[in-house]
Amino acid sequence: MDKGWYGWAGRILRVNLTTKEIITEPLDRGLARAYLGQSGINARLLFDLTGPDVDPLSPDNPLIFGVGPLTGSLAPCSGRFTVTSKSPLTGIFGDSNCGGHWGPELKNAGYDHIVITGKAEHPVYLWINDDRVELRDACHLWGKTTWETDDLIKTQLAQPTAQVACIGPAGENLVRFAAIICNLARAAARTGVGAVMGSKNLKAIAVKGNRGMAVAEPEKFWEVVQQSVKDIQNDPLYEVASTFGTTAITGLAQMLGFLPTRNFQASVFEEAENLRGEVLLQKHVTKHKGCFNCPVSCSRFYKVEEGEYAGTLGEGPEYESITALGSKCGNGDLPSILHANTLCNRLGLDTISTGNVIAWAMEAYQRGIIKTDDDGVNKFEWGNHNAVVETIYKIALRQGLGDILAEGALRAARKLGGEDFVVHSKGMDYPAVDVRGTKGMALSFAVSPRGGDHLKGLPLYEVAPEIYQKDIKEEVGIDITPAYWAEYETKARLMSWHENWHCVVDSLGLCKLEGIAIKPLKPRHFQQLLKAATGWDITVEELEKIGDRIWNLERLFGVREGIRRQDDLPPHRLYNEPVANGPSVGEKLDHEKFEGMLDEYYDLRGWDRETGIPLRGKMLELGLEKDLDAVAGSGTVVP
Amino acid sequence: MTGNPVIGTPVTVTVRYYVLFCIAAGYCREEEFRLEPEPRMADLVEVICQKYGDEFRHKIFSREGTLKSTAWFILNGIKLAEDPLSTKLKNGDILILSSPLLVGG
């Protein structure tokens, strides 16, 4: 840590790949106070370093890595880092949050952020060993999978405990939803940050740190940490989380009727029984696995013992990946999903966008838009798991039709036809909730600054009101009922509150699995942890305001790129087609009610109802008025 | 078919186990129970707890014997919100016993 800093390391590393210049500079205290760290400061840096004229895959687009003031500390679930860049998938604000051990190692090496600009002449990787930072040749690594790269770099450096974040062939080939992978299976995947890394000829960042970090009030911090761990372990959902992770959802999503099936044509899948977390646990899980300093250990190692995919090893998969590569593609073969998940990790692909684009292609085939694949064989039938696996390769290597699909579902549809059944917002594919029945999630996915997304604001309480009722009343002041998920009322308030705290958690360096939904960690936990770690005299209200500021800055980024109210509406299918089967049969989003919910949301946010542009009064309140001026200066007419 | 033998008109209920309940039931995912006439949910729960023992019972009840909020009773597709144990069961009912969901990933 730099002198006088507690929590933060106090340094930003700037690497210009074009000039090979490497500079370490102090972290600005005002910046930390205004944006906390990790995703918040990343967003601020990105806003200042780029603009509407910057192509996401050009050398001018910065790639920013960041950790938070609690990353790498004894705070539970503090293994997170965020990668931020202008997204090659959406052309707007992009970031992706990742667990594992890479983030804490960066903090240990003495850095809060790495800002990478320019483009290397040939493939390189960045090696950070405390103050020693160097670019190394990576020509021999180009074309290698993430698993091979991780192993080769550690061997070459003779540093078996170094942490490596790298891209695979997908990132090299500029697949617009390529991921950055660390610890072989932890992915910064959404919005295609791996493609930005590939565009810079940067294969990997390897880190080994020995500097450690300091906290301002060690005894108080330890006390709050112990209480936080207790609260996590005493939470009623702890046993589910530590036994199943997110895979518990698969069976429940089917039961409640929000399991996206065949590209969201249905919300109940006839083969869902095969995809349940219970089946995964009984047949394939070999061991549970946790990220840095996690008392939950929600992840799992798996193995396929027999059949066509025997020998497949990997970690995960999350509910999102099971669904993307499974029910969305009509695929009920769990071993094939495990194989596909491993492939995505090795090739460096976002499983959600990969599954969605394949599902879109299967529907395009169903509708006669895609008649044969590039080999001349009809194979995009729903449930053809061989096609799923083969298409993953083709996307990563940009072979044949895979070259078109590598552009993402929206671009592929604009080229081939079938845009009405691309399920996306702002160009990013939807995660695994059919939101026609869950109105708050519908709002959340639609307004997210990075596009269709469940991780910027996810009101879990919608579907489990009895678990969260008391906390919601206490924290947000809203009464929720058993039928809450189907209602439009109060969702705007719930969402805006929730989004602010998402921004806080993502900027502190904590995992949202434990801080995503009021339980088990609440705003007071975050405030107490931050205060003891940094020595700041900060209130819960001030912390929420920081979250509000970050959210609004990300919105302004979108506004500068042309995002307006019409971009905050749900995708065509979910807005216009009723659910075909299951408990939510006949449900669809009501236009008038959704627009009303959006009006209310804009009012709460301080945004103009007509355009969705933040109003000056709100910007003044958050200290963002100069940024609004900058947006106006770039040609946007601000209200 | 499992459960206690009954006298009179039996009521047969299908029980599906999810998440922690599935594990507590030895990874059984579905089975039928034949119950005495006019059964309530509490009767069915007692039969199941007797079959699978304390591990299962502790998934449903706290140490003080109160119903846990993490025990979901979904009867014929409807989540029972209030006092599920007093709910009357009828022949052919389908009960899902599940832990609440957790979304993310």
Number of β-strand runs of chain B: 5
Order of strands side by side in the largest beta sheet of chain A? 2-1-6-3-4-5
Average pLDDT score of chain B? 89
Count of the domains of chain B:
1
Number of helical segments of chain B?
3
Placed side by side, the strands forming the largest sheet of chain B appear as: 2-1-5-3-4
CATH superfamily of the largest domain in chain A: Aldehyde ferredoxin oxidoreductase, N-terminal domain
Strand content of chain A: 5-15%
The number of helical segments of chain A is 26
Ends distance of chain A: 44 Å
Percentage of residues assigned to helices of chain B: 10-25%
What's the CATH architecture of the largest domain in chain A? 4-Layer Sandwich
Radius of gyration of chain A: 23 Å
Shape of chain B: globular
| Strand/helix succession of chain B | EHEHHEEE
| SS elements, strand count of chain A | 17
What topology emerges from the helices and strands here?
The complex is a heterodimer of chains A (639) and B (105).
Chain A: E1 11-16, E2 21-26, H1 29-35, H2 38-49, E3 63-66, E4 81-86, E5 93-98, H3 102-109, E6 113-117, E7 124-129, E8 132-137, H4 146-157, E9 163-166, H5 169-172, E10 180-182, E11 186-188, H6 193-199, E12 202-208, H7 218-233, H8 238-244, H9 249-256, H10 277-283, E13 285-289, E14 299-303, E15 313-315, H11 319-325, H12 334-347, H13 351-366, H14 385-397, H15 401-405, H16 409-416, E16 424-425, E17 428-429, H17 439-447, H18 465-475, H19 491-508, H20 512-515, H21 523-534, H22 540-560, H23 572-576, H24 591-605, H25 616-622, H26 625-633
Parallel strand pairs in A: 1-6, 7-12
Antiparallel strand pairs in A: 1-2, 3-4, 3-6, 4-5, 7-8, 9-10, 9-12, 10-11, 13-14, 14-15, 16-17
Helix pairs in contact in A: 1-2, 2-19, 2-22, 7-21, 11-13, 12-14, 17-19, 19-22, 19-24, 22-26, 25-26
Chain B: E1 11-17, H1 20-24, E2 30-35, H2 41-52, H3 54-60, E3 72-75, E4 78-79, E5 94-98
Parallel strand pairs in B: 1-5
Antiparallel strand pairs in B: 1-2, 3-4, 3-5
Helix pairs in contact in B: 2-3
